[in-house]
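Input record, target 12 of the design panel.
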């Protein structure tokens, strides 16, 4: 028995509702900025009603329910109800193409879709002739064709039905991005979310009196694993925004008296690009967790301007937790991802799985227990599961695919995704390193570096750059700056400019798209 025990997400919520029934649990800010609020006891009432609604639609243990939605209270309602029933929730991005969405539904064998009118055409296209029922959120658009989620919820009994939920049951399927192949369905159990929540709570000092501002999308693991479920573990409260807004983020933090928030590098840069306001420090945020590096100048400006301490972290959907984080106290060393946290052991290894010494790049691996501190596996993909979860020295290790190294003080540094390392004339070029150097140059707002096929050198180094407003920075100025900070073989041979870089919903640059754009530009130039 360990810290998870036999608990489920639902049983934890129910225990808090018993001891602090009148404590505020959730505030939801609608797109029109009106608020909905629930105490623990009030929200438990809706969870049990949701469980009955799912049962009424023939959802039983092991069945998959799809949430094709932006941020909404339906996320915690349906996921907690599924935790109780033993069912599984599949969150998907509303920006998914019809083809992507169809694959998610077919691969997961989803039995129910909950969506809103705005995304109905995509859902209908994917579910046509499959007999998959649809529930629509109440969003101002009426549809007599499909039942309304809220209306059906109100008709349900608050007495929970029979539930088959257990700590080891898969409660969510979260699909990875799949830049080079079909997305893989990551199977995560109740135990995964609870173990990850306990780790996060301890490593960030999350307190019972805290309120977590959630602006990242709940269909992604970050908002859930960095904010929602740790807040449940701590018994505190959450304020869910419909989406991230750089112009309103600190206003929302102050309005909802939030003390914690979770972000990524891209949203941090968006906030820094906002006009300076007198209200920049009119908030109570004491800790903002994030992933993906900023430049030294950006860190300095952030702390000077906003005053909210940053805590960097590293994790993966497959881990459902953050095995490496900046220390809560002392030197946070934000140029690094952080140090291994309590509950995890991390190593850097070579291609043979041999542990490497400090300051030596290699693949980052994490020791973990499947279905507990790492995913149960990839849905219907034993080969990919075995490739990611490998046995070494009597233990299971998660092979991340990330290239990293650590220093003599035990701080780990992200270098690149293994697939993003550029192989130039037999030498490895870290795209993250080149991006960091270019980003530090005044006049650069955003940058993506990637490798392009080269008949002589295997790959060439290319950069796609977004200029800052009013900037007229040139390729020669960028190369000159790189020459002063990088070895010659790391300097981009190709530099292009664009208005905006394509990013995922949580701010990660879609390098495969940028690479295609660069190749397209090159092919047009050759005509």
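The sequence produced for target 12 reads:
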């Amino acid at each position: 028995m360990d810290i998870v025990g036999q608990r489920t997400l639902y049983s934890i919520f129910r225990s808090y509702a018993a001891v602090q029934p009148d404590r505020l649990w959730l505030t939801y800010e609608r797109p029109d900025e009106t608020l909905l609020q629930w105490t623990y006891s009030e929200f438990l009432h809706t969870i049990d009603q949701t469980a009955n609604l799912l049962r009424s639609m023939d959802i039983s243990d092991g069945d998959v329910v799809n949430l094709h939605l932006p941020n909404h209270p339906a996320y915690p309602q349906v996921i907690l109800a599924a935790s109780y029933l033993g069912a599984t929730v599949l969150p998907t991005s509303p920006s998914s193409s019809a083809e992507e969405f169809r694959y998610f539904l077919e691969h997961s064998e989803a039995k129910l879709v909950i969506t809103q009118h705005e995304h109905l055409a995509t859902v209908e296209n994917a579910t046509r002739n499959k007999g998959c029922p649809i529930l629509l959120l109440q969003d101002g658009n009426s549809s007599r064709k499909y039942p309304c989620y809220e209306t059906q919820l109100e008709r349900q009994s608050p007495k929970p039905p029979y539930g088959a939920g257990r700590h080891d049951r898969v409660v969510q399927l979260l699909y990875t991005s799949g830049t080079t192949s079909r997305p893989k369905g990551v199977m995560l159990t109740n135990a995964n979310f609870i173990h990850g929540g306990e780790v996060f709570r301890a490593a960030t000092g999350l307190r019972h009196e805290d309120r977590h501002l959630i602006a990242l999308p709940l269909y992604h693991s970050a908002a859930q694993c960095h904010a929602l479920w740790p807040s449940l573990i701590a018994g505190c409260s959450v304020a869910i925004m419909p989406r991230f807004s750089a112009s309103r983020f600190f206003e929302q933090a102050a309005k909802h008296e939030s003390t914690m928030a979770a972000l990524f590098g891209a949203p941090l840069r968006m906030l820094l690009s906002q006009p300076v306001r007198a209200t920049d420090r009119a908030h109570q945020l004491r800790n903002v967790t994030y992933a993906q590096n900023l430049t030294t100048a950006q860190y300095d400006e952030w702390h000077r301007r906003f005053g909210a301490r940053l805590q960097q972290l590293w994790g993966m959907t497959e881990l459902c937790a953050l095995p490496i984080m900046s220390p809560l106290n002392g030197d946070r060393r934000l140029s690094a991802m952080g140090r291994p946290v309590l509950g995890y052991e991390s190593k850097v290894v070579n291609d043979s799985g041999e542990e490497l010494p400090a300051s030596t790049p290699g693949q980052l691996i994490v020791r973990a227990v499947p279905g507990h501190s790492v995913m149960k596996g990839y849905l219907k993909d034993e080969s990919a599961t075995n490739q990611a979860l490998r046995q070494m020295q009597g233990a299971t290790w998660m092979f991340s695919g990330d290239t990293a190294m650590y220093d003599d003080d035990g701080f780990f540094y992200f270098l690149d995704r293994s697939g993003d390392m550029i192989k130039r004339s037999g030498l490895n070029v870290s795209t993250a390193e080149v991006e960091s150097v270019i980003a530090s140059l005044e006049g650069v707002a955003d940058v993506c570096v990637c490798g392009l096929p080269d008949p002589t050198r295997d790959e060439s180094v290319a950069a796609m750059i977004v200029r800052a407003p009013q900037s007229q920075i040139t390729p020669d100025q960028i190369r000159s700056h790189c020459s002063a900070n990088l070895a010659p073989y790391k300097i981009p041979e190709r530099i292009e400019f664009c208005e905006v870089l394509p990013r995922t919903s949580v701010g990660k640059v879609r390098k495969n798209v940028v690479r295609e754009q660069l190749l397209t530009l090159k092919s047009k130039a050759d005509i």
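The mean pLDDT is 92.
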